[in-house]
Hints:
With 323 residues, this protein is an alpha/beta fold. It has helices at residues 13-16, 30-38, 50-55, 57-71, 80-105, 129-142, 159-168, 186-197, 252-258, 262-268, 272-275, 292-307, 315-322; strands at 2-4, 24-26, 77-79, 117-122, 147-151, 205-207, 211-212, 221-222, 230-232, 237-242, 282-287.
Amino acid sequence: MVHDYATTTNGTSKRCSALPTTNTVDVSSVSDLFEFICSGPLVNKIGITPQRVGQSIDKWLLYGSQLCRLFQLNELKLTIPQKARLYHYYIPVFIWCEDQIALHNSKFKDGDDVPPLVIGFSAPQGCGKTTLVFALDYLFKTTKKKSATISVDDFYLTAEGQAELRKKNPGNALLEYRGNAGSHDLKLSVETLEALSKLTKEGLKMKVPRYNKSAYSGRGDRADSSTWPEVEGPLSVILFEGWMLGFKPLPADVVKAVDPQLEVVNKNLEAYYDAWDKYIDAWVVIKIQDPSYVYRWRLQAEIAMRQDGQAGMSDEEVLIRFD
C-alpha cells in the first residue's frame, strides 16, 4: 500500500499535537464526517467501501475520539490537517491492519498457536512512520489486542560496535554514522523477531531492545536493558518500522557508478533480507513528495532533542549524514 503523505512529526504524542490551529472544521456532524472519510485517498485502495464506512461509523467515531485523547486534540474543533491525519491516514491504516490480522488468523485452526502477524512499515526518515506506529499501537491496546512495536533503529550497533565499524571502513562517510546497511546488529534482530513470534500464550513475556539516540552527543548507543519495555503474549501483531525495510542490493556496477563508497553498503545489504524482510507478512509503504524533506525532518528531530535537554547531532552533522 502506497500513501503520499508529507505532514511533519517528531515521533512523540506531545510534539505531534502541535499542529496548525487555524481553519478549524466541525466534526460534530456524523454525515459530514462520513463524507470526509469517504473522500480520503486510502479508503478505495484498501477496500473500504462507503457502505462499510456507514456500517462502522460508530467505530470510526470511537477511534477518532481515542486518538484525539492520545494527541490532546479537541475532537469537535480539529484543523483540516488534524482531521485528515486521523480520518484519512491513521484510522484507515488501522482498519487495514485489523483486516490483515483477521485474514492471518483465518489460516489457522481452533486450538492452534497463532503467531503474531508482522506488519512492516517502510518510509523515509522523519516522515512520521514512528508516530503512525505509536498511534496504531495505542488503538490496538484500546481494542484489547496485544501488540509489540520495534524499529530498525532498535537494532543499531552499540557505540563500541559503531566505532569498530568506522575503524574497519576509514574514510567512508556512509559508515561514519549509524543508519546505513552494516550499522545494525542483525543477530539481535533475528533473536528478537524469533522470540516475539513465540509469544502466543498468556504469561509469556520478553523485553524488547531500544536505542538511545541522544547518547554520545547524538551518535547514539543501545539503551540499557533495564529500560527496555516488556511485552506479554498472546501477541496479535508486531509493528516493525524502518526507513530501509524492504531495500534490496543493486548490481555492483550500478552502485559504483553512483558512489564508490556505496559498494560496501550495498554488499552489507545482502544479509538484511534474512534478518528482517523474510519475517514480514504484510507491508505498508509510505511515499513522500520530495526527498529533500528527509533532511529537514531529521534536522527538526535533532533540534527537538536538544531543546528537550538531550544530546543530539549538530546541524552540520545532520547535513553530512544526509547529503
